[in-house]
Design goal:
Layout: H1 42-47, E1 50-51, E2 61-63, E3 70-72, E4 75-78, E5 85-89, E6 96-104, E7 109-116, E8 128-132, E9 160-167, E10 170-175, E11 178-183, E12 193-200, E13 203-212, E14 216-217, E15 227-229, E16 236-239, E17 245-248, E18 252-256, E19 263-271, E20 278-284, E21 293-297, E22 301-302, E23 305-309, E24 334-341, E25 344-349, E26 352-358, E27 377-382, E28 388-398
Antiparallel strand pairs: 1-13, 2-5, 3-4, 4-13, 5-12, 6-9, 6-13, 7-8, 7-12, 9-10, 10-11, 14-28, 15-18, 16-17, 17-28, 18-27, 19-24, 19-28, 20-21, 20-27, 22-23, 24-25, 25-26
Length: about 425
């Protein structure tokens, strides 16, 4: 029988902002010594931030023009090209905070695109473009092109910090922590890519990080309301006195009542002994035995090399795509972020992107046999009799879809 601790014995969870991981003392926290995404502090990882740029490669990015995008000295650099265009993320996002640093030469014309289609032709209808341009431009640095012009001049050649909040019908911009432009009551475009623009002149970007917003609490920390249990299976799920969700023994599964198709999922997990195996399944066929895509939880390596996962690695899509590096450690909390939009699946562990995979198989209702795009449940796995894994801070939200005709990536269907 599934053991549940009554809510009056469970440690009460503090109410926190949507999509934010709690960081108070009685909550799980990523240790400050943990490996993390480029430029992220342990506190930022605990709050749900992820790095979009690892500082060494263009993993997770795709060029949409012939511009000379490359990595130099920990920066994304561009300074020439046959045609203007974007370097954009392969993952799509909806509501979020985005911060980055940029350096542009005097006459450079560049920008940051949010909620964008892959190759937008009109920044007023296909995206929001936050401009990087001299004061002589109709929309100087910090303006929202086609919508809001700022009058504040930004010095060229220096490094500057840009912060963007895109939440529901409002987009706001800060440059060097000073308000620059706000666009309210606008029609949102739905989820889209983050893009860096090349138009003319040299520009550099670094410390690009994003925090999803608007996620809802999926596990309340006191009971299993909203989850389906499987008492006929040997795996056991229970609520610990500190409000953590414990998975022990196995096999077993715990399944959400809600279903998700294109969505963001954030959660924390901890393997409580060396070499344990678990997972989180998604787009599952409801009621079936762990029949969905699986985010692997397994920190074992080959010869102690974190670049060589032994069993897919934490953050891998098991049996489909290996994690490029083991970032998590046994006996420590890790923060995991999943973004699944159409066939494109991206996973971050402690803010570091380990997986960028597109399911190119033919469509099939059964994800074991082909590409499943339909909504499905989320399942937590108790893998085997040795399983001892803790889960906490589970948040998820469906991503809103772009309206027809707004430049949806045809490859994302």
């Amino acid at each position: 029988m599934l053991h549940q601790i009554s809510s009056n014995l469970a440690c009460g969870l503090l109410l926190i902002g949507l999509c934010e991981f709690a960081t108070c003392q009685d909550k799980p926290a990523i240790p400050s010594s943990a490996e993390r995404g480029a430029g992220l502090s342990a506190d930022e990882v605990n709050q749900g931030w992820i790095s979009l740029f690892d500082g060494t490669s263009l993993f997770g990015w795709q060029a949409e023009s012939d511009a000379n995008w490359r990595v130099e000295d920990g920066c994304i650099v561009v300074d020439m090209g046959s045609a203007p265009g974007l370097l954009r993320t392969t993952a799509q996002f909806d509501d979020y905070e985005l911060t980055l640093e940029f350096q542009a030469e005097k006459d450079a014309n560049s920008g940051v695109f949010v909620r964008t289609s892959p190759r937008p032709t009109d920044p007023e209808t296909e995206c929001f473009e936050i401009n990087i341009a001299p004061s002589s431009n109709p929309y100087p640095t910090g303006s929202i092109v086609g919508h809001v012009k700022t009058n504040e001049e930004v010095a060229s050649d220096d490094w500057h910090r840009m912060s963007i909040s895109a939440f529901k019908e409002q987009v706001s911009v800060q440059i060097d922590d000073r308000p620059s432009a706000t666009l309210a009551d606008t029609a949102p475009f739905g989820c889209g890519y983050v893009g860096l623009q090349f138009n003319s002149g040299a520009v550099r970007f670094r410390n690009i990080r994003l925090k999803p917003m608007g996620l809802g609490k999926t596990f309340n920390g006191s009971d299993l309301k909203g989850w389906k249990t499987y008492e006929e299976m040997p795996g056991r799920f229970s609520i610990a006195p500190n409000g953590m969700l414990q998975a022990r023994g196995g096999p077993g599964q715990l399944e959400t009542e809600n279903q998700f198709a294109d969505f963001v999922l954030q959660f924390k997990c901890r393997t409580n002994a060396e070499g344990l195996n678990s997972g989180v399944f998604f787009r599952c066929i409801p009621g079936e035995r762990m029949n969905g895509y699986e985010i692997q939880i397994d920190n074992t390596t080959v010869d102690g090399d974190r670049n060589k996962p032994k069993n897919g690695g934490t953050g891998a899509i098991f049996r489909r795509n290996e994690a490029r590096r083991i970032v998590a450690s046994d006996n420590e909390w890790s923060a995991i972020t999943l973004v699944a939009v159409g066939p494109r699946i991206a996973v971050w562990v402690n803010g570091y992107q380990v997986t960028d995979w597109k399911d190119d198989r033919p469509k099939h209702v059964n994800p074991r046999n082909g590409r499943r795009l339909d909504a499905g449940t989320i399942m937590l796995q108790a893998h085997d009799e040795t399983t001892d894994v803790s889960f906490a801070d589970i948040f998820a939200a469906e991503l809103s879809q772009r309206e027809k005709g707004n430049g949806v990536d045809p490859q994302n269907k």
